[in-house]
Specification:
Structural class: alpha+beta
Helix content: 10-25%
Strand order of the largest sheet: 3-5-1-13-10-11-12
Number of helices: 17
Radius of gyration: 26 Å
Shape: globular
Largest sheet: 7 strands, mixed
Bound molecules: dioxothiomolybdenum(VI) ion
């Protein structure tokens, strides 16, 4: 089998997608389909005291209104961080409670979507209101030290050496607080479910990153055997963590379909998604960083307040990443979870790392200026071979290489160090900034089943979901290389519970957990082909060998685990749970890395910020599919630009909810905001983390973009941005 970098192949599902033949969850319209729409809560918190459904029921075509009085047979959802399946433990419409503004209070099902929407607006609800905390800074928001929070597994603060003393005696110091607004995912594909029953059997079509959790979680909530449920999610129109778990509409849609004996579709409108799904929690971070006179970091004190909900503790892993940015002499973290009356925040592309990098990398930049050092040099100086927290070696850490290659591609040497020292011909202030990012190298168990046919088709079933990131293309590339067949002959069955168990695809572990299983399955298939004893000439294809053996088809199965895992981990994915491993393995730790170089132009009078140019270099281990990897990386950089300059959920403390709950007012970058983005990959396989040498890519691409931008803004203007998003008013 050839080794070395993978060849670039076109996206294998490109034709299906551009011709509209890729069928997404709620594209499915089974015969007899009815449509659902939610009525939502108009108070910040409280209890429903009465519901008047008479006007709603009078709308022509209304078939059913599901409110809390009908849902007594349903079990509440269980939170994924408590070995459950849902984004939160709170299930709207199962009780008269209102936990936050905008939660569903009733589901109306009708012959047409228009009738359902019309009727949902005619439901009259009376409430008993309660005071609430809408934001991290609300008076009623309750802060709990994470180490003391009642969580499924404790996350203790990290203590390495005596960071307080080392900081107190450091020659050079920086101390600052960084805040970030909530951010909200807006994948193109809305959250939605189509549920269709045939007798006792239920089929669910839904765009999800976790078909296994939908299957087992739904079984639990409906009180039926999981084997009666099939979840089908071959394509997802963007996940980014929002579709990690069961959402509120799933059980209610399935319930309504069962009541009516007809298939039901519910597509949650974007405004409602802002109010009743997970989001990136608001954070407040304080970093104190000390260095000796040569610029070596002697101490880092890292504090984070991260938003959570009243009903769940969404655990903060900000400090874990903060501790791995550099080889600090000593490190201490303090994490607090701040409870607010909101949905439970959750995983959103680089859920913690995006915020952490903003705080750490801004502080590093500040220290570099104090020391009169080049921002790239100070980062190279503080790189480390060993993890300061565990003392373990890094399986691979090419961050210095990313910095060196990125600096060269960017032309960093043209930068003059002093703030406001570079001015364009039109008078724009030019700023150049750098920052690094990292993301845990996780993996997990996976099952694979592979099937070769005499007519040349290779079909592989793996536990992973295609959400646009390109995993189908990566799988085709890897299987084609292993079996010496063309990528077009490879078909993957993904996101479908009729195949092997469909564990959560998230945490940038999709490739690292499924590709080793694919490779192992290819190897097993080769052995099984050899065992047919055909004496086929060297280099024969599976189809040729099957023809010689006069067989139509040959199937084999395989299972793989992450380092340190045992077969027990398979029991978890077989029952719809997650079983990730990493970044700490028995003998090493693994992270992926990014170095971003950004040029900004700041218009001197209006202070308008533009980002004409970004160069980013990544270490994600082996690149499996160069084209889709590059595309994923560019997408991450675009997101980083939005995260730095645009994205913020706006909340009015008096009412709760989100004011700018649509993509007209929740600003994301558009084409006109994006200049040149050049990305590159080290493409060195990680020698230890798995047989495929792959770390993760999907999230690290975003990490560090924001501080590279704000560091460039400082270089351009001399103003240090300590809140995201950075706005014109911050620079005046
Ligand atoms: Mo990701 S934010 O773990 O889907």
């Amino acid at each position: 089998m050839p080794t070395g970098p993978y060849a670039e192949i076109p996206r294998v599902d490109a034709y299906e997608k551009v011709r509209g033949r890729a069928i997404y969850g709620t594209d499915n319209n089974p015969a007899g389909l009815l449509q659902g729409a939610f009525a939502t809560a108009t108070i910040g918190k409280g209890r429903i005291t009465a519901m008047d459904l008479s006007q709603a029921k009078a709308v022509e075509g209304v078939r059913l209104i599901v409110a809390h009085e009908q849902t007594g047979s349903l079990q509440p959802a269980r939170f994924i961080m408590r070995h459950g399946f849902a984004f939160q433990s709170y299930s709207p419409v199962l009780t008269p409670n209102v936990a936050y503004r905008g939660q569903p209070v009733a589901l109306v099902v009708a012959d047409t979507l228009e009738a359902a929407i019309d009727a949902s607006s005619r439901i009259r609800v009376s409430y008993e209101e309660e005071p609430f905390a809408a934001t991290l800074d609300s008076e009623r928001a309750e802060a709990v030290p994470q180490a003391e929070a009642a969580t499924a597994w404790p996350i203790e603060d990290i203590v390495v050496g005596d960071a307080e003393t080392a900081y107190a005696t450091a020659a050079v110091k920086a101390d600052a607080t960084y805040t970030m607004s909530t951010q909200h995912q807006n994948p193109m594909e809305l959250i939605g479910t189509v549920a269709a029953w045939e007798g006792e059997r239920l089929t669910v079509y839904e765009g999800t990153q976790n078909a296994g959790a939908c299957k087992f979680g739904l079984a639990e909530q409906l009180g039926i055997p999981a084997e009666n449920i099939t979840v089908i999610s071959p394509y997802i129109g963007g996940g980014f963590g929002q579709k990690n778990t069961m959402q509120s509409q799933l059980v209610l849609t399935a319930f309504a379909a069962r009541e009516l004996g007809r298939p039901v579709k519910v597509v949650v409108p974007r405004r409602q998604i802002f109010h009743d799904s997970s989001f990136r929690p608001a954070t407040r971070q304080r970093v104190r960083l000390g260095a000796d006179s040569t610029g070596r970091f002697t101490a880092a004190l890292y504090e984070v307040d991260a938003q959570t909900s009243m009903h769940d503790f969404f655990q903060s892993e900000h400090a874990d990443t903060a501790a791995r940015h550099y080889g600090y002499g000593a490190f201490r973290s303090f994490a607090r979870l701040v409870r607010t009356d909101t949905p439970t925040p959750g995983y959103m592309r680089a859920p913690f790392e995006h915020a952490t990098a903003f705080a750490i990398e801004s502080t590093v930049d500040e220290l570099a200026y104090q020391l009169g050092m080049d921002p790239v040099q100070i980062r190279l100086l503080n790189d480390t071979e060993t993890d300061i927290v565990t003392g373990l070696p890094h399986s691979s850490r090419h961050i210095s290489e990313c910095l060196r290659r990125g600096a060269e591609m960017f032309g960093w040497e043209r930068r003059t160090p002093a703030p406001r020292s570079m001015v364009a011909e039109n008078g724009d202030l030019i700023g150049m900034g750098v920052a690094i990012g990292l993301y845990a190298g996780a993996g997990g168990p996976n099952r694979a089943s592979i099937r070769a046919t005499r007519d040349g088709v290779i079909q592989i079933s793996l536990g992973v979901h295609e959400m646009g990131q390109g995993i189908r293309t990566a799988i085709a590339n890897v299987v084609a290389r292993h079996l010496d067949v063309s990528p077009e002959s490879v078909t993957a069955i993904l996101g479908d519970t009729r195949g092997v168990p469909q564990m959560l695809t998230a945490g940038s572990w999709g490739s690292a957990s499924s590709i080793p299983a694919a490779e192992t399955a290819c190897e097993a298939l080769r052995e099984a082909l050899d065992a047919l004893g055909t004496n086929a000439p060297e280099g024969s294809s599976p189809a040729e060998i099957l023809a010689l053996a006069d067989r139509d088809v040959l199937s084999v199965e395989a299972a793989t685990f992450a380092p340190g895992q045992t077969r027990e981990a398979l029991g978890e994915i077989d029952t719809g749970h997650v079983a990730p491993s990493g970044p700490t393995y028995p003998d090493f730790i693994t992270y992926s890395y990014a170095a971003h170089f950004v040029e900004v132009r700041v218009e001197p009078a209006t202070r308008r910020i533009r980002v004409p140019r970004v160069v980013s270099m990544f270490d994600c281990g082996r690149v499996l599919s160069p084209r889709t990897a590059r595309s994923q990386a560019i997408g991450g950089v675009v997101w980083g630009i939005g995260g730095a300059l645009r994205e913020a959920g706006e909340v009015d403390e008096r009412y709760g909810g989100i004011l700018n709950a649509d993509i007209a007012e929740y600003l994301v970058p558009v084409n006109a905001d994006i200049g040149s983005i050049e990305v590159g990959f080290i493409d060195e396989p990680d020698p230890l983390v798995n047989r495929s040498g792959v770390k993760g890519l999907g999230e690290v691409v975003l990490v560090g973009v924001a501080p590279a931008i704000t560091n460039a803004v400082y270089h351009a203007t001399g103003v240090r941005a300590r809140h995201l998003p950075v706005r014109i008013e911050d620079l005046i």
